[in-house]
User: Fold these one by one.
Assistant:
Number 1:
Amino acid sequence: MSYLLKTLKKKEEVDSMIRDTIDKLLVLRFGRSSDSVCLQLDDILSKSEREVSKFASIGLVDVDSEEIQVYTKYFDITLIPSTVFFFNAHHMKMDSGSADHTKWVGAFHRKQDFIDVVEEIFRGAMKGKLIVNCPLPPERIPKFQLLYKDM
Amino acid sequence: MEAPSETNNANPSTVTTKRNSKTKGKNNDFEFCKVCKLNHNQGRRHNYFPNHIKSLSSFLSRFQSKISDVRFFLKNPSLLRPELASRNRFWCVFCDSDVTEHGSSFACEKAIAHLASVDHLKNLKTFMWKHGGGMERVDRFQVSEADLAKYEQKCISMKNEGASEQSRGALIGPSNDIHNELKFDYIDNFDRNHIGSRNSSFPNGVLPLQNHTNEKYQVSQSDLSGGAASNTSSYDNKSLLLASNAKRSNNVQGKSSLTEGHLHNGLVYSEKREANGEVSSAGLLKLTQISSTVHNVDVGNVHSGAPPPWFDTTNRIHLDPAPKPGTKMDPVTKTVKSKLNPKRVGAAWAEKRKLEMEMERRGVLLTNRFDANWLPNFGRVWQSGSRKESLKEFAVEAKKPPKDEIESDSSVQLQPYISKRMRREANG
């Protein structure tokens, strides 16, 4: 599924994508294309890419590649798929009621959910907000457990 | 149950009558829409169809461009050569008539007369009413009476001036040789005034520049002496300037050197001054100054085929060192900025980056010249405080791991606690 979207394997690629996406929301999916949940998410991303193309661009990041390790550490990515949002090279957070506000962990239930989330974050960013509330009802937010430093 | 049955009964008759009336209307009223070039039976409804509106606007804009040509001549009446008269014709789309310029002595004279006529106005109004052009646009497609009166006045004055001339045909568009001839001519026999009167018949806008400008000096002078010229004084200076340039370029082009050209110019001026007295001397003073500033030949001008000065500005932008971001904004980015919320996330960064990207595209800045260790702003999961701190924390973490390993290595050798007494007992 990942061939439909731009896959980034180097830190520079991720860097330049973050830096060159201006006044648009950047959606970075960290994961591996063989993972089943990642495939599900990629399917949703690739289908909705065109629809959100006016205000968002989407990139896939391969967590297995050596150069990306910096980012996986910096972004504290422990579960895949994790989706991180950027706007003008600023990290956008979302309060979805889960433990991690910094990223979206897991897949979306349907395409519209993803579009809603992206739109909400974009609108928030245009209003100058660094964190927004999740527009989705709690039953459609994937649950996960976060461990602090493996404890 | 009753109600529906009633309606059922009632319906067929009404429907058929309606249909009849509709079909009647349709069959009878086929008409041709001039704008869409289409036969239709829609009646007035047709005017509101998007296709009609589109083609109407293009239709009108096409005619508008034609009229703007005519309007040019309305403002600056110019003589029409008889041999060109047959080629000059004007198709009026509103009146469906061809306006030819046969027998008119000024360019577009008949066309202007037509546009100002009552018939044209009437046809124009019916057209606008029929095709829904909007009555407020009527003024654009006709010539007002005031304009016409002005035009006629200008024409009459031109005619009067022209009356003293001999041949009009020969005067327009002489070849380069003639031009040279004339140039030397007038240096020699300076006080031939009739050339001047001939030239004054050109209005400001329609000067055949290069060829005639030589004679301009005399023209204006004669005019001044005659007292006929109201606007000639300013016009005069201009023409003088042009003349000097033209002459200089000619000299550059030709075998004679530039110095000769200047000499030549100087000659001319001196003669001028003698002949024309103080009125022209002001203009001449100006002229000499200009010619001195124009001295450097390398720059070139229109006549020598050099690029116009405004081309240089674009080059300069390329050569300019990168302006500091934030000090000067491109007009483009400014407009974009005004559209977006200035308080959006990373607005300042976006503006800066946009400028950088613009320069990268132009090749002024190197692409990807940012630090390899660059990291975006990010708020980490367990981080409290500003986002910069998470970057710092990460930097510390990135350095740490080797240390941690060493510490863990050293701490591996854990030993059970053995008290002094136990040790002593063991020893003893």
Number 2:
Amino acid sequence: MKFLRNYLNKIKPKFEEGGKLHAFRSLFDGFETFLFVPNDTAKNGVNIHDAIDSKRIMSIVVIALMPALLVGMYNIGLQNAIAAGVADTTSWFSMFLFGLMVTLPKIVVSYVVGLGIEFTVAQWKKEEIHEGFLVSGMIIPMIVPVGCPLWVLAVATAFAVIFAKEVFGGTGMNIVNVALIARAFIFFAYPSVISGDGVWVATESVMGFGADVTVDGYTCATALQHAANNVPLVGASADVLTTNDMLFGFMPGSIGETSVIAIAIGAVILLYTGVASWKTMFSVFAGGILMSVLFQHTLPDNPVAQIPAWQHLVLGGFCFGAVFMATDPVTSARTETGKYIYGLGIGAMAILIRVLNPGYPEGMMLAILLMNVTAPFIDYCVVQSNINARAKRLTKKN
Amino acid sequence: MGLSKKNKEALTAPLFKDNPVTVQVLGICSALAVTNKLEPAIVMGLSVTIIVAMANVIISLIRNTIPNRIRIIVQLVVVAALVTLVSEVLKAYAYDVSVQLSVYIGLIITNCILMGRLEAFAMQNKPWPSFLDGIGNGLGYAMILVIVAFFREFFGTGALLGYQIIPQSVYDAGYMNNGLMLMTPAAFILIACIVWYQRAKDESLQEK
């Protein structure tokens, strides 16, 4: 650490005004403050600082994402091996390596494009680097199917960073979740790479890893698509999923969303460190359960409505959305009561879209985006009702 | 053309500095609805240009005889008559486009640009400047429509005016049409980009 600090101090003058590499000032600044907590204090006014700054918070979220990402990589290899019919003869390690080879380019593209735009804007406006993309850049590759082409990912990331973040004023000012906007962009602009049943399994080997699937046009639907097509999830058909598959995440789906257990580890990290609000997380699940129980009893003919509530929660992107995206402190409701309303809304809306809209097998993305937009309104109502209650109390006493 | 300075201003200001869509933010509804292809956008732009110009001239001619209290109704009757005319002409000579434009030709009646120009300009000015003002505003509107429709059709279908521009080899390499461009939100985003560009260029337009 000492060595790193000394090295940074040594090269620092080059990036300052008049230095040779002044054009890359924001880049240097960004990395320096990422590695070391900045030492400078506010110059004017009274400020209250937490000991932890937003770059450290972002790092915790990235760490919390790791279990889901690693299991997701293994799952990519597993699905590929199953598709090629070599699942019994392939070791878990080579499956994981294949997943790594497929996922790594996506992560690199997402970070290069997103950070590239952020650094350019910071340099151009002479501002500090915004750190928010550390998390978004990791989440974006995790919420797309493995078959998503890199250029689509790049376009979507650029769109999301420019139109969902920079035009609103950068990190901390965005109204909607940046990573979800990237996914929504792909969803509406290039529906063929994110829906249907041909995109969830990698079918080509990469640099000797993995297997080429020889069946032309191999398709494999996600659990929710099966449910929408009235294929029983647990039963006698060939596409059955065991309960273990659902919990560990060994099923087709977006890269990071399938494994409930891995996401749960992330959730524990987030809750233990206090980065995410348990109120939001809890009420998303509560809303989901309430809504799916309601539908189960009112819509006996709808196949998706008949999925048991617990399966609704473990399938698709529900867990991932509830843990990592609904709890985003920037876009969620900020008042404590508001967090309950906000979370309930997300859970209920996600199940509502799944059950009642045959066009969208998964509703989590749209539910979170919708509640992101309404979060300021929820906060306004909560604050206003508090003001009214106190005003009433005041006039009563007099 | 020997236009006086004031007339020249009436013709050119609506094109950029006082553009009805990007500066006055009028006529947004139809700008969103008819711009997913270039052809209907051009037809729509021309129709509005013709109607604004003619309505401006007619209202300007009778401006001194219109009783103040019923002037909105008189303006509406003139506009409605012109819109019906244009609509019938389109049905007769460009049936396909008129089907694509569907109700939006009829809805030109409710286009704020028309009533706005009649109230703000034609009621106070002589026919010739009113005509120029109508042409200017119509073209300013048409220009934005054409720019938006150009991007939407090009990225949404890979074609312009129905002719394939992006060759098949690019599609074979993995390129895909952007479906979002064919949806209305894309028009919102594109118009926002034009507004953004225009205000970044011309600081007098920026709100304080």
Number 3:
Amino acid sequence: MFIDDTIAAISTPVGEGGIGIVRMSGKDSLSIAEKIFRSFKGKNIRDMKSYTMMYGFIIDPKTNEKVDEVIISYMKAPNTYTREDIVEINCHGGVVAVKKILSLVLQNGARLAEPGEFTKRAFLNGRIDLSQAEAVIDLIRAKTSESMHIALEQTQGKLSSKIKDIMNRLLGILAHIEASVDFPEDDIENVVSSKIIKDSREIINDIEYLIKNAETGKILREGLNTSIVGKPNVGKSSLLNALLEEKRAIVTDIPGTTRDVIEEYINIRGIPVKIIDTAGIRETEDIVEKIGVEKSKEYIEKSDLIIFMVDSSRPLDDEDYEIIQLIKHKKVIVVINKIDLPLAIDLDVIKSNFKEENLVFASINTEKGIEDIKQKIEDFVFSGEVKSKDIYVTNVRHKDILFKAKESINKGIETIELGLPLDIASVEYKDAYLKLGEITGDTAAEDIIDRIFSDFCIGK
Amino acid sequence: MYFAGSYDVIVVGAGHAGCEAALAAARMGCKTLCITLNLDSIAMMPCNPSIGGTAKGHLVREVDALGGQMGIAIDNTYLQSRMLNTAKGPAVQSLRAQADKKRYQEYMKHVLETQENLTLKQDEVIELDVKDNRIVGLKTKNGAYFECKTAVITTGTYLKSRIIIGDVSYNGGPNGLFPANELSDSLKALGISLRRFKTGTPARINRRSIDFSKMIIQPGDERVIPFSFMSDNIDRVQIPCYLTYTTEETHKIIRENLHRSPLFTGDIEGVGPRYCPSIEDKIVKFPDKERHQIFVEPEGENTEEMYIQGMSSSMPEDVQIKFYRSIPGLENAEIMRTAYAIEYDCIDPQQLKLSLELKFIEGLFFAGQINGTSGYEEAAAQGIIAGINAALKVKNKEPLILDRSDAYIGVLIDDLVTKGTNEPYRMMTSRAEYRLLLRQDNADLRLTEKGYKVGLVTEERYQRYLKRKKAIEQEIERVKKIVLPPSEEVNDFLRRNNSSEIKSGIHLYDLIKRPEISYEATKEIDKDRPDIPFDVAREVENQIKYDGYIQKQMQQVEQFKKLEQKRIPEDIDYNDIQGLRIEARQKLSKIRPQNIGQASRISGVSPADISVLLIYLEQLRRKKGE
């Protein structure tokens, strides 16, 4: 709980639009920006005047790599929305860049804003009229219950059980150090530094794994890998065009991939989806025997989601069966196309191989079923893991927490390796535990004490 | 009933809380009365014969730094002294001294008897007189009525106490003394909610019946560090303790007789402390542990009674005799006092303010074990604060509230008042967020100024503090200015201390920061080092060596203080605040936190609730400004 540290958030809608803004508010805004910004003309950001902009690049200070080309605007307190120093980073790389810039800002000293926090600060600092107070409270309440809802869903998820496992191991380290500190004369097994370092490293590995693999986070960073498969002429290209809608302009050929396979990024309800159109393979190689099963397999393996298209006006043939065998173990949406034509397909075969709820009946040419397909894609991304538009923020929050917890454990190891007493390192471990507790709602002091008494026989 | 006099402050009870409360109030110039059931039980230690220990030693030093008596009393009457955790960091090192129980009591009683403004009386307080939600007086068993402006209740474990020894149980206070059976009902009638806690103590055995050759001797430290900042050199001959262990036979006897233990038959309803389990508890909960440590400690110089630490029990007497005698060295043990469990009434401390005054009765303060704590040191810590605040109340001044970044005392009281406790509360260093700042070695630097401001710290103590503070600051300044050259002498010194050599000049200050280099050792390369006292040198070293960690915690404290300084008006009505969740509303209404920081520590109050509360307070402020 802080009231005047520096907060940051993405202030543009996620996943939509070509530009994004990362906003910071608080006294360290400018100095945080300084760490990650290089002016195009070599100017110093510290010399910026209030209400001016500067053009340059965001770089990752650890690798010195350019992240994006940006314009920074600076508004000096008190004449700002929050009455605190505000820095806004306008970037134009879409989702990937905005997200990367936000995490750089967080890694360099900012804290992710709580729901409604910019407005809250505006009010507390006298910027907003008294009559708006109720609205501020409503905003905090509404956003909090929304994110609590998400948090609740996540506590039942895999991520949460993994984090609880990590916390449990951290607590084991903490309780051992603390028991030996608070009960030096009790018969407690010696705390061995090398064991703590080994355990800490294992915990760090697990945290890093979580950071990398927080699944939805990955989807949002790289796009949901989706392959459209099906034999020729079932309507794959039509589906692709239909999904692209008027945003056709953003379609790009990603260089470096097989020329015959097209990867296209589209935005479906805020989710970046990378669609691999395998149609290309077939059309350049007209011999059916040379389908290049291996190549198709490779794409199917890489995909998070398969859209399998069949033509309902034709019976299933060997080619369909072959594809069914290839994709059976994947997450699949089956699009049964051309339902405006007389039905010739054996639906029972489809139903015996795929879940009924994943079937979509469509007639792409008449735009029937397109919305259903989009809905299915969205359901897939958010199923059981996350929900609603806050998914993005929530994951940034988790990543931020995981990152900061990792940093604390690293400092703990450093402290021990320097030869300083364990009770000093334990301060760092406690920090890490408290950080992770922000995800699960656990608090340190009582947890440690409970653990001491359950792990060790203590007392006069 | 007759009118027996009028006092500014009346302290009920003269245990470790009562003594500090009475002395503090009297020393601050209030006309003070201290009433106790038995004058011979002033400052009695009914359990272990020692003062201090981890975190508890910190509390004693803090009480001392504020101008309390406990530290001076133990420095005058200790039998053995040890600094615990010397292999660990400075923040968790704690003093513990074995006490000569009787001499400690005698010493403290005499201090109370000779204290100006303080009257001591043996009697039992049976009823509190409250008018218009304010304490105005109290009645005693002997028929006296005393008028008062404030009162401090420090009745320890005496309220409706019950002694349990196996299947035997009777109403009785600790150590064979009388219980106080009537005051509980008066408290209840005033609307104060009570609960029942339990604790226990081991047997006392005659030294002549113990074979020490089968035990390991535990001597005291060679260099004794005093508890009190007022004590100089207090070296004297120390009396050893002894270590032995339970045996398989001990565990067998206990297991076979578990059906006779009231803990397991359900005869004890009170909640006992987890850190102070009875021996039967330990054996049941940790069945794989082959043996448990038993420390045999002297109770005094002029007594043969020995305290058997680690073996508290509520087993029947005949079982006790058997299992005590199964321990190496105790085969022929002659038990002089039987181990017992004691159950007693205490109050739910969430009814108190941070000043230890009851929320709904003005002028009525509570301190010590009645607040649900355990330990002499925890009691003394609350006692001095309750005494100070009762006196400040009489003088119409703001109470002294120590927060979690000021002192362990602040952590203790905030925990009790804000979170409550489900078992007798014991202080532990892991309860303190800002542990690196709250060291036992700097208690005076943290608190003596505050004690001086409220008028408890004497001029003599204050001058000593100023002198020490200046000496520390000067030495650090001096060390900061010294640059050592990469000379052969310096590098030779570094080699001998297993430290890496230097190629260019280095500040002595930075050299002391190296974990392997002590301030003391650098004396040989620091030619102009002045002759400074041992305690000053230790403080200098700690402040330099842990500077980075200390700075980090100080930054955290800065954030913490901002929330702590946001006061919540006393008359706030949480039902008026739209947007608070019902649970938060109920908890806030019950605890009535005094500031936003305290509110944020209440379980069930979320950060969003705090945001709503902040906005409400801002609304209120602006409306008032209009």
